[in-house]
Amino acid sequence: MPTRLRVAIAGYHHIINRGVNRCDIFNSNEDKDMFLHILNKSAVLHKAIVHDYCLMDNHYHLLIETTKDNLSMFMRVVNANYAKYFNKKYKRSGHLWQDRYKSKYITSENYLYMLIKYIENNPLEAKLSEKVAVYPYTLAHQIFNAKTYHPCCEESILVRDFDMKTLNEFLGEPITDKELEYIKTKAKQKIIKQDNGIKISQSKQFEEHFYDVVTKHDRNMAIINAHEHSGLWGPDVRAGNG
After folding, report:
1. Would you say 69 and 11 are in contact if contact means Cβ atoms under 8 Å apart?
2. Domain extents for the chain?
3. Predicted pLDDT at 193
4. What is the DSSP code string of 114-128?
5. CB of 66 within 8 A of CB of 238?
6. Which one of 50, 73, 115, 129 is separated from 56 by 20 to 30 angstroms, measured CA to CA?
7. What is the C-alpha separation between 119 and 62, in angstroms, rounded?
8. What is the pLDDT of residue 6?
9. Residues paired with 103 in a beta bridge
């Protein structure tokens, strides 16, 4: 019998965590800098790559690639050490995090690149900036403005696969409602681990993906969804292999 895939499996992960009762987890830029410092140390220790991040006042988004099945250990170090710092600084006690962090396993290159746009667009959605990469606590801002970043980001897709011009063009395209819907759909997928690979659980009949198709763009998205919902991935699944 197949078993549900553990979140700690090696590969790409979208991580989200919030403050308890949606309270702020960052009260200053100093707090955000400390979180990035802790994140970098844990990433180096656990041989993980931080491909993107966005630190908002009451939550964060991380796009992480693990090379071992150690995501849980990696995130435990990040969250525990930051909570210890935060509670000591602000003389508080008790839980800082709302719950265990949320983790979504990324199964395709298309999903991966849409998540990058989604993460970098978070400050725009929150009305904290009017343009991507202006808000200081995203990786794109560091690349465009500071021209420097933590060692854990040196192998990031944003650094490795884009020059400045191409990255600006890619992030400059507004994220569409269709792309947001695609991300939500992918986040709901169930991943099943089998002896011969990783299978995305079939949640729709093939033809159901095409019920609402009107435009060519709709058709292309439907083809991608239909393929990924029924695809069988190799045991060493990585975004870009599908």
Report:
1. no
2. 3-172, 177-233
3. 64
4. HHHHHHHHHHHHTTS
5. no
6. 73
7. 8
8. 45
9. 15
93 touches 87 (CB < 8 A): yes
Prediction pTM value: 0.80
Rounded to whole angstroms, how far apart are CA atoms 16 and 55? 10
Any bridge partners for residue 137, and if so which?
A: none
List pLDDT tens digits, range 35-79.
Answer: 999 999 999 999 999 999 999 999 999 999 999 999 999 999 999
In the chain, % of residues over pLDDT 70: 79
With 70 as the cut, is the pLDDT of residue 227 above it?
A: no
Tokens representing 40 are 């970098």
pLDDT in tens, 95-107: 999 988 999 999 8
Tell me the residue type at 159.
Answer: V
CATH 3.30.70.1290 fits 3-172, yes or no: yes
Tokens at 191, concatenated: 């991943």
Alpha-carbon distances of 30 from 55, 78, 140, rounded to whole Å: 12, 16, 19
Question: In 3D, which of 112, 21, 110, 30 has the Cα closest to residue 58?
Answer: 21
Q: Using an 8 Å Cβ cutoff, are 13 and 66 in contact?
A: yes
